[in-house]
Amino acid sequence: MTSKYQSFGLEDKVAIVTGASQGIGRTLAIALAEAGAHSALASRNQSALNEVAAEIESLGRQALVVPTDVTDVSQIRSMVGKVQAHFGKIDILINNAAWTVTGDALEISEEEWDRTLDSCLKSVFFLCQAVAPMMIAQGNGHIVNIGSTFGEVTFKTRSVYAVAKAGVHHLTRALANEWSAKGVRVNAIGPCLTETPSRREVFERPGLKEWVTGQMLPIERWAQPEDLIGATLFLCSSLSDMVVGHVLMVDGGWIIH
Q1: Distance CA 132, CA 183 (A)
Q2: S-S: 5 plus which of 35, 48, 93, 142, CB 3.0-4.6 Å?
Q3: What is the pLDDT of residues 171-227, one digit of tens each?
Q4: 117, 158 contact by CB (below 8 A)
Q5: What's the pTM?
């Protein structure tokens, strides 16, 4: 089979993609298959993961569905163990799963704070910790954490998310500092607002699209999940081996505005 993105050199690599049931995670898992990689798909939505797996397998690649709540460290470790046992190696980790509260900082509850930080930051740390020993033993591995524009700039009603994603960005640098000499490349991408099914309600708010695309995005359009494919595949490949602890902004120019 000729891979759509074969120039990235990912033939028969093994990737874990979290939050793979929809949106960005689904798009990236399929793109990895189109680049020649096999994937382990993690999410709480098993039926949706099965659909993604079927699409990956139709491309001639293997897909392992592992339902996982990434806020639960025991489930993270169990999932990584299953992937290791099934494939015998882990070459790539895409930390995409996330959840966030939106609201005025004065009204955020402790439960909402904890759920956001657990989903967006705690999960990233413990997933990286779980895969790193195998990658270090192999002498090679690529971790790509999905950050955000809001990890670099603030936005009203997104204070907790901004804190969580800023943590992801700095954690990326910290882990890269520890593991790059051992062959593990840790980087991140920072998308702007991306049009996915889980964010449909936000994107349908009257006047929001016109304001954001007119005032905040020099490219003057929303991001689509497909916009993240090139940056992700690059950071998963040996083409990026000299890129260490970097946050590659895929944000349509939001943070330079």
Answers
A1: 10
A2: 35
A3: 999 999 999 999 999 999 999 988 777 666 666 777 777 777 787 889 888 889 999
A4: no
A5: 0.94
The CATH code that applies to domain 10-252 is 3.40.50.720
pLDDT in tens, 95-109: 999 998 889 999 999
* C-alpha torsion 24→190→5→195, nearest 10: 30
User: First vs last Cα of the chain: how many Å apart?
Assistant: 43
Compute the mean pLDDT over every residue in the chain, rounded to the nearest whole number: 94
- Give the active site residues: 161
- Give yes or no for a contact between 11 and 86, defined as CB atoms under 8 angstroms apart: no
State the Cα–Cα distance between residues 180 and 195, nearest whole angstrom: 33
Residues 2-24 have pLDDT tens digits of 578 999 999 999 999 999 999 99
Amino acid at 257: H
Within its chain, how far is the Cα of 182 from the centroid?
Answer: 22
Total length of the chain: 257
Residue type at 205 in one-letter notation: R
**Chain-centroid distance, C-alpha 145:** 5
Q: What residue spans define the domains of the chain?
A: 10-252
